[in-house]
Amino acid sequence: MSSNIQLPAAAFQDRDGSDEALTTSRDSSSRDNTSRAEAGVRKTGPYGVAKAAERVSLSVVIPVRNDPANLELCLLALESSEYVDYEIIVVDDASTDDTAEVARRHDVCLIRQDTRSGPAAARNRGAEAAQHTTLFFLDADVCVQPGTLGLVAAKFLIDPAVDAFFGSYDASPGAPGFLSQYRNLLHHFVHQDGKQDAFSFWSGCGAIKKSVFLGLGGFDTTYSNASIEDIELGSRLRDAGHRVELVKSIQVKHMKRWTFWLMILTDIKNRGIPWTLLLLRQGKIPNDLNLRHSQRLSAVMSAGLVVALSQLWLLLALALTFGIVVLNRRFYLFLYKAKHLWFVIQVIPVHVLYYLYSSVAFGAGLMVHLGQKWRR
What we know:
single chain, 376 residues, alpha/beta, Spore Coat Polysaccharide Biosynthesis Protein SpsA, Chain A, 2 domains, 8 strands
């Protein structure tokens, strides 16, 4: 498949939210997207991408705040796409650095927010400004592959009954370092091991019909930081009878650099506690992704391991460690094949820690939930 498509020069201007600015941008981008569609008809590839180009136009929505380096990589990757019938909308969430200047150097529609509102609100703003009927959400620290957009468009063409779907990170994380490699490979494995019929949604690399998204009110903007707004949207999608799928063939590279304290803060404050509250409100816990029965049992055994070690019950500690390894053997085998044995040995204690603080997050979320019920 040829990939030497020359994208047109910047055809979009900044949008400040005014009707006049929106109209001007739409007029200029209409001509640009026509040339892209004409080029797309000539493309060939998996799942009949050439035909998809005639019928599916994508609005790629990217929220960003103070991340110019990763945004540059993200936009360069999009510009290398073999599929050409798309627009890019970058929503700058009140960045205080040169993030907006990076966006201006590319063929994008730039929306700048005056005050920080969070990625949920930023995505909603981008979706409202989108010209096309299909939204493709990307995080700014994610790089698509040349065929990603074509696979997204083709999925909607082949299976129009699907209202939304999402992919996963690939098995080659862009950020170096043990923690970054572990975290991104864990995410890759969890999604690749998940069920096709999904109960959730993922905005890091997720597509949805614009009419469905707006009909549900978009992302819940009460999540003012990057949290579980995409999971919550997925829950509303399923409750409303919409079909959501996990498409494992759609994979993107994650460039995020993880640190120890960022991992703890993210998993407890931004994800663990809010997700627990959501699950308790729903009154059900699906057996999929991070919530499989094996994951829950691993959390219990990790807590038991800490108790056993504190009491020097070494045989029990050894038995619990063996049990955790058995329950997670497929993940550890995947890591062994992707990396090496020493990497797996290093991962096991960090993975046990993950189960421990996930249990703490669940307990904290339960206490908050009970407190909220009591105050009512």
